[in-house]
UniProtKB/TrEMBL annotation, chain A:
The lineage of its organism: Bacteria, Pseudomonadati, Pseudomonadota, Alphaproteobacteria, Hyphomicrobiales. SUPFAM superfamilies: FAD-linked reductases, C-terminal domain, FAD/NAD(P)-binding domain. This is GMC family oxidoreductase. It comes from Bradyrhizobium zhengyangense. Belongs to the GMC oxidoreductase family. PANTHER family: LONG-CHAIN-ALCOHOL OXIDASE. Keywords: FAD, Flavoprotein, Oxidoreductase. The keyword Heme does not apply. GO terms for molecular function: flavin adenine dinucleotide binding; oxidoreductase activity, acting on CH-OH group of donors. It comes from the Bacteria. Residues 108-328 form the Glucose-methanol-choline oxidoreductase N-terminal domain. Residues 418-532 form the Glucose-methanol-choline oxidoreductase C-terminal domain.
Automatic annotation (TrEMBL), chain B:
This is Gluconate 2-dehydrogenase subunit 3 family protein. Residues 1-28 are annotated as: Disordered. It comes from Bradyrhizobium zhengyangense. It holds the Pfam family Gluconate_2-dh3. InterPro entries: Gluconate_2DH_su3. It comes from the Bacteria.
Length: 562, 219
């Protein structure tokens, strides 16, 4: 039988792939479709993978579904940009708005482990004030979470992933030592450091989810630089090689190549399970609770595609906010040439970072913040950047590409503000499963533009100070996606509560990047995983008190009456 | 630079494929790159006419030096479309990959005929460049474009696929001095002006004969 994980599911017959051994297997518990499991989780990425692990470890029965394949990185990942596009979510989607997003390779994965299989591993905590940005900083929306509680969950995730980071982190309240030592700087990172020092701002080694020392069967990072094309050495601490093996060991079942098309809700308004497509047909898995963790486009798409007579506007959507407030992060860059050889293809792409403009509010004509990092684009990505962002082709492209080994760049992860008109809706066209495809609408607001202008000006100065020449700016790029099912403390203005439980359907939960009310200027995955850890703890505690089946709304009503 | 449009190679004597059997390449990478190098010369998705147009577009977007076997850009694009690979998103008004290519090539020929009375492949390099520049800036109005914007087709489909195909090829990797596949060995020397012995040396960083000798032995 074929062992192509893209065509035939691997996790079945009581076993799942052992990601640490070529051709290897580990035992896996399996549940029958008629067996009502405690939790059916849709998606196994930063949110779903983490939650599956924690809930299984707390003794709940869990089946986690992923539309993507179950890879063994050591044998399935090539050192090749084209081949590795197999990691991306490339089902049909339509983009529009004044600033249509680039999707695919740019921001979403489809594999067991989700987008963390090809993410760049930057693992940052949020600035504490961002959790109350409306009250403390005057923009966006407050989170229903307390930063001090989050600080503990960040710690848990940093330990679980053995984050390699600096001895002292220059910004924010004190944090414990990172579990593993920081990685060495490459030349591209030194250019960042040089610019920061000349301009008098702080910088540090980027906290990264890749090993700087051995861990179990995983070797340390070998600085091969293919991180966003997937790590074939297992140094990268993706959900695939961290949370998922733990989940299996604790008795969770993973179903790969299993696309969930619909969440079923009964006449009493409770979720009863999920319809999923696997092996060419539709199946139904019964569950006491359903968690949607498909990331900021697929999560609202699934909720909107699951309409029924009782919920004609989609599930969990009484606020009308499902799909709205989609937030990308701005991802503009400044590029230049150095006299020295840089060869930025060596090492993880972002070895050095400054969060200065995340923590400094003086001198800004915009709300929010941004960090910026050194870069290491591989040839296809770099050539396409030259063409698409700079307009080069023909002889100019060919001669400019000759400078590849001398290029250094700085790129932001910038905060974009939530706007209801930036959103995911359903188009009329359908995908290979007959499900309506998402339409993703995005336009920058004035604040977004001011932030970008500030960043480009500042980074241009930084590159000049670092002695780069032929500097140019890449103005149209965005990265990570968040929002579309925001958490909050008011059912009229949010989709889920602080525990990621939907206001409308008591046993429907959303646990992924969708729940962010704001995005900050930091990469989101550490926060997604910290929220998942918190959600698992809350579920355990509520269950322990016999309150797991009590609707979120009743608790809200009780609180507001006090 | 030579005036015949053939610059001195920046990494003389470097061929990333000499590393193929060494510790920088694993089995799965060797397999993938071998398949790419064996891409069929004849189209399986494009018609012969379309294929000729794609080849002339590619020759303008990624012009190749003579004196070495060319990267088969049109064949690589044909293979990708034949396989049905997708970017995973498209702007409003643009059809999916295969249809977008077909429609765009038709529109390009329609524009060429309107402006010069001949198909794109037959109008000569300077006029071809002129048409491509107009497409890039959106200065085209043939009804053959349908709802697809010429600018979008240039940037998000046509030039994108051409550039990605070219830089998927080991010949292009060697040309820009990239280390190429790097698993399991990876790299050790990361700082300014540091080169591992299994990376290309740049012309100008030593004498030319020495650089060539180093590059022949990169492995
Ligand atoms: C190139 C790149 C670099 C990045 N770098 C960083 C970084 O350095 N640091 C950082 O913090 N973040 C980074 N990110 C972002 C980060 O990967 C995501 O924010 C994070 O993984 C999102 O977590 P999630 O759980 O919401 O979704 P994901 O991790 O994307 O997981 C969602 C999963 O759900 C599955 N799914 C969706 N719908 C269905 C369905 N209907 N049925 C079954 N399965 C379904 C998908 O296949 C997918 O596997 C990067 C992203 C990309 C693309
Ligand atoms: S640089 Fe490190 S983390 Fe990135 S792909 Fe290579 S080994 Fe993995």
């Amino acid at each position: 039988m074929s062992d192509n994980p893209q065509h035939t599911p691997r996790a079945r017959r009581g076993r799942a792939p052992d990601v640490f051994r070529p051709g290897g297997w580990v035992p896996m518990r399996e549940y029958g479709e008629d067996e009502t499991v405690d939790f059916a989780i849709v998606g196994t990425g930063a949110g779903g993978g983490t939650l599956a692990c924690k809930l299984a470890e707390y003794g709940f029965s869990v089946v986690a579904f992923d539309a993507g394949p179950y890879f063994r990185p050591l044998e399935d990942f090539a050192s090749d940009e084209s081949e590795q596009t197999k990691l991306y979510w490339t089902d049909d989607r339509i983009v529009d708005g004044a600033n249509p997003l680039q999707l695919g390779s740019n921001n979403s994965g489809k594999a067991v482990g989700g987008s963390t299989v090809h993410f760049a591993m930057v693992s940052l905590r949020f600035r504490p004030e961002w959790f109350k940005s409306r009250s403390l900083l005057g923009y966006g929306a407050d989170w229903p979470l307390d930063w001090r509680e989050m600080w503990n969950y960040y710690r848990e995730v940093e330990q679980a992933l053995k984050i390699a980071g600096p001895v002292n982190y220059p910004w924010g309240p004190p944090r414990p030592r990172y579990p593993y030592r920081a990685h060495p700087l490459n030349a591209a990172a030194r250019v960042l450091a040089k610019g920061c020092e000349a301009l008098g701002i702080g910088w540090t080694e980027t906290p990264l989810a890749t090993l700087s020392a051995p861990r179990g069967l995983a070797h340390p990072c070998v600085y091969r630089g293919f991180c966003v094309a997937g790590c074939s050495t297992n140094a990268k601490q993706s959900a695939l090689v961290t949370w998922i093996p733990r989940a299996l060991a604790a008795g969770a079942e993973i179903r790969d190549l299993a696309m969930v098309g619909r969440v079923e809700v009964d006449a009493a308004g409770r979720a009863t399970g999920v319809h999923f497509h696997r092996d060419g047909t539709w199946h139904f898995q019964r569950a006491r609770h359903v968690v949607v963790a498909g990331y900021a486009i697929e999560t609202p798409r699934l909720l909107l595609n699951s309409t029924n007579g009782q919920f004609p506007d989609g599930l969990a959507n009484s606020s009308g906010l499902v799909g709205e407030n989609l937030m990308a992060q701005s991802n503009q860059a400044v590029w230049g040439l150095m006299d020295q050889e840089i060869r930025s293809y060596k090492g993880p792409p972002s070895l050095a970072i400054t969060e200065h403009w995340n923590y400094e509010d003086k001198g800004k004509d915009f709300f929010g913040g941004y960090s910026y990092m050194s870069q290491g684009p591989l040839p296809q990505l770099w050539a396409n950047t030259q063409m698409a962002a700079r307009g080069l082709w023909g002889a100019r492209l060919m001669s400019d590409m000759q400078n590849y080994n001398h290029v250094a760049g700085l790129k932001i992860v910038g905060e974009m503000l939530p706007q209801e008109n930036n959103r995911v809706t359903l188009a009329d066209e359908v995908d290979q499963f007959g499900l309506r495809i998402p339409r993703v609408t995005y336009s920058w607001c004035d604040n977004d533009k001011r932030l970008i202008a500030h960043a480009l000006k500042f980074m241009t100065q930084a590159l000049e100070e670092a002695d780069a020449r032929d500097i140019w700016t890449q103005e149209d790029d965005t990265c990570h996606l968040n929002g579309t099912a925001r958490m909050g403390s008011d059912p009229a203005r949010s989709v889920v509560n602080a525990d990621c439980r939907s206001w409308d359907i008591p046993n429907l939960w959303i646990c992924d990047g969708s729940v962010f009310p704001t995005v900050g200027g930091a990469n989101p995955s550490l926060t997604i995983q910290a929220i998942a850890c918190r959600t698992a703890d809350r579920i355990r505690d509520l269950a322990g008190r016999g309150e797991l089946d009590q609707p979120a709304r009743r608790r809200y009503a009780a609180q507001t009456a006090q | 630079m030579h005036d015949r449009g053939r610059p001195e190679p920046r990494y003389p004597g470097y061929d990333v494929l000499t590393k193929r059997q060494g510790p920088s390449w694993n089995e799965q990478t060797r397999r993938v790159v071998s398949q790419r190098l064996a891409v069929p010369a004849e189209p399986r998705f494009f018609t012969p006419d379309e294929f000729r147009t794609v080849a002339s577009v590619a020759a303008r977007i990624v012009p190749q030096p003579d004196g070495r076997p060319p990267v088969p850009v049109a064949a690589l694009i044909d293979e990708k479309l034949f396989r049905g690979a997708s970017d995973g998103y498209r702007p409003e008004g643009m059809p999916r990959e295969r249809e977008a290519w077909r429609q765009g090539l038709q529109a390009l020929d329609a524009e060429a005929k309107a402006a010069y009375g001949a198909a794109f492949h037959a109008i000569g390099a300077a006029r071809q460049d002129g048409l491509l520049a107009r497409m890039q800036s959106g200065d085209m109005t043939s009804p053959a474009w349908g709802r697809m914007s010429p600018q979008d087709f240039f940037k998000r489909r046509m030039a994108r696929d051409v550039v990605l195909a070219y830089y998927a090829h080991p010949t292009a990797w060697s040309e820009i001095g990239w280390g190429g596949p790097a698993s399991p060995r990876g790299y050790v020397r990361l700082d300014f002006d540091e080169r591992d012995p299994w990376e290309a040396a740049e012309a100008g960083s030593g004498d030319a004969v020495e650089v060539r000798r180093i590059n022949r032995h990169v492995g």
